[in-house]
Target: MOSC domain-containing protein
Amino acid sequence: MTSGTLLAVCRVHQLLPTTDSTGVTAIDKRPVVGPVKVHGLGLNGDIQASRKHHGGVSKAIYAYSQDDADYWAAELGTDIQPGLFGENLRIAGLPVSEAVIGERWQIGDGTVLEVTCPRTPCRNFAAWMKQPSWVRRFAAAGRVGTYLRVVRNGSISAGDPVTVIRRPDHGVTSGDVFRGASAEQARLLADAEASGDLALSPEIQKVLRTLKIRQDQESVAATR
Model:
C-alpha cells in the first residue's frame, strides 16, 4: 500500500488569548522529541481549546503534508515549520489534503488513524498567521489537511512510517468535501456508510444533510 513518513509530532506549546467566546486557542503547536502516546482524543499532552470546532473523537488529530507546507513556503516567502498551521502531524509522501474519507493509516508498529473530514480555517488561524485575507487564501488553495479519528491507540515518533492500510472504494476525498461535495459524491458516501464500509463523522453527516436540503429545495422550486 501507499506509504509516507511522519516528519514531526506536534502538540500545544502554550495557550494564547483570543477574542472569541472560548477565550484561548491551542494553535501554537510545536514538534516534540521522542515517542508520544495516542489515545481516543488525540496526543498525550496536547489540548484543543474548543473541541466543538477542533477536537473530539472525530477530529482528535490534525495532519498536514510537507508538500502543502512547501507550497505555502513559496507563497509566503518563509519556512512553514511543523506545527505552524496547528497540525499535530507533519507527513511527507502522502497527499494528506486529498486523503479518502474513511482511509486508514498505520503509524509505526500499531497506531491506526482514520481520515474523517477536512479542516475549515477560522479567524484564530488568521490572527495567528498575521497574513492578509488568510482564511480566504488558505481556503482557495484547497490545501487544508485533514482530521483523523483514532482507531487503535499506540505510540508514535518522528521518523515512523505512515502506511495506508485501507482505502474505501467510494473515492471521495477530504478535499472533495471541503470544495463542496457533488450529489454523486454525497450518494457514494451515504451508500458506503449504509453498506457498513465506514462510519461517517458528524461533520460529514452534516454536509450530507445540508446538501439534501438544498437539493429538495431546488426540486420543489423546479416544479413551481
